Here is the input.
Amino acid sequence: MKKLSIFALLGSLLLLLAACEDDPASPEMTTSNLNLQISGLEDLGNSALYEGWIMVDGAPQTTGTFSVDANGNMSSTSFEIDSDDLSNATAFILTIEPNPDPSPDPSDTHILAGDFSGSSASLSISHPAALGTDFSSSMGTYILATPTNGADTDEKSGIWFLDLSSGSPAVGLSLPTLPSGWKYEGWTVINGMPVTSGTFLSVTDFDDADPFSSTMAGPPFPGEDYLVNAPSGLTFPTDISGGMAVISVEPYPDNSTAPFTLKPLVGSIPSDAMDHTNYDMGLNASFPTGTATK
Here is the structure.
């Protein structure tokens, strides 16, 4: 009888352990797929990655990282997510992150976002959780001039984003304020090569650098004289007539010396351009878009 009681006790313990393992209060996590279909993204190189996030109960949860090749193809378009989290997700956000990434949190550089309506979210740069604008109200005017080496010298070798219609230099760009994680950058395409004129946040002040200008002061607006320190393949001074003037929106910090895919303002510089003459830029509304489906 004593042995039987011991065996009965052991059996009860085994049943209890089995019941604990099957406790419905702590089930195994089930997953579902988040699918992304995005066009217009560019290759970030080896030092940055795109990372997706879903907003669950007001907090971001990563959906995973991916890269994009030179043809715009994503390295992954489907991501396994906790089913409950995905079901409760209210929005999707796409960021640009450093690689390797020292932080588990999203960077400030949000490029696309969208709210879920049913099972899908339409992604755009204009969502408040991304850049918050489609740049449709942007305008730009520029002149050719080289104020940093004095008057009447190599005047077609510089670009300044200002307006001379009043007879005095005035603001030439109308651009929306950017959120953290982004900066504007001016560019001149010279003999097919894009050359920076500097990054900036304010259209009524100097930009962040003047690596090609000479020694005299330029006007307090974004712009650059292409007079010294020419990049390989170019010779300064030059004549930028026949090139292109571009304003891009760049990730900050920026891992590339080339223009980013967001280029809200573009203008062809006439082949017979005159210095100290206003030329207008046109709106370029070709931006990344996409859909997130849960």
Observations:
- The CA atoms of residues 194 and 258 lie 7 Å apart.
- Residues 2-21 form the longest helix (20 residues).
- Confidence is low (pLDDT under 50) at residues 1-26.
